[in-house]
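Appendix B. Chain record.
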Amino acid sequence: MITMDDFLVNMQHYDEVVWLNPHFKKESNSSLNLVDIQDAANRLQRFAPYIELVFPETVQNKGIIESDLIEIPHMLSTLKKKESLEVHGKLFWKCDNNLPISGSIKARGGIYEVLKFAEKVALDSGNFSVNDNYSKLAENQFKELFSKYSIAVGSTGNLGLSIGIMGAKLGFSTTVHMSHDAKQWKKDLLRSKGVNVVEHHGDFSKAVAEGRKFAETDPLCHFVDDEGSKDLFLGYAVAALRLKNQFIKSKIEFSKEKPLFVYLPCGVGGSPGGVAFGLNKVFGENIKIIFVEPTHAPSMLLGLYTELNDKISVEDIGIDGRTAADGLAVGRSSRLVGKIIDPILFAETTVQDDRLYEYLALLADTESIFVEPSSAAGIASFVDVNKYLSKIDSSIKNGTHLIWGTGGNMVPKEEMSIYYNTGKKLLSK
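Structure tokens predicted for this chain:
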């Protein structure tokens, strides 16, 4: 039983909140470090020839799964006018909504974990070494080898796409356990790739639990645990190394007085947590990270605020977990991420669904960037942090701001039209 203070009551009533993390900059007790992130980056580099061979859309980037960093000045100008914001720095967009293969931030971590498992299976077979050209893994002998193994994951959608598409391409028997609120088009797409999709009544945590139970019955099954996988976490963290290089090319530097503010939509916490961990290791005190969750599924915020982490669910305080941001529709946060992110996270905000639609429509109109609702959450967080925290932290007005896009380019056109038109109608009111 927890004591319901005013802040929790506001969350319980689905009010939008802005929370400054009191543990920000406290000492971290994580055993993971920059060496672990570099090891993951090196592994992805080894797999680049294979990725380039089997996924032609990655040829331009030589098999590296990465997205562009772009400035969005028209969106910034629109938001400053619409929301009466005083922002002196630049606003950037990280285009993970356009990542190749599976079209979301989940591509890095999800695909990385599958590749790491494939590498282990191949090395254990005795017919492969780390000195080989990894394009060799596309040969029939390895597809036959991988077909003896299986991969399973529980997902609301985007992680399932990453695991499913990559696992099936390698030849693994791949099963994605999905919650009832996952989008039908994501289920259909997975099935078209030869992935077994199992639907479960209940939320994300139920799908993960059922997936874990399924995997435990098969000794040759690798279960991708979105609630606690270090491999997923480190795969996501690699983004920080690449982002540093992108900002160097843009000739933009950061300092304590003019830091980089990064806004990350959060569900169970794996992808934003991994990215945030990497950013903290790469940029140090010159970065401030903000998470954002739907008002109907603030699992990470609830866990951090109560200090119970994964020991509390939004259902425990009467929150229903229903949101248009299906990728963020999570009732309980990661058991791994909460403790790691606690001293790293600067702040967190929550957002109501209507604003997601409004901002995705504005982003399309001003910058021709089309995203799914969950991917627009970072825009709302940027607005709220600048509105409500700039009087507390003067560096917010002068810093550089980066909103992390998380999903979009796999969304069918008719579905995207519904998102956009919904946003336009809300804006016209």
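Further analysis of this model is presented in Appendix C.
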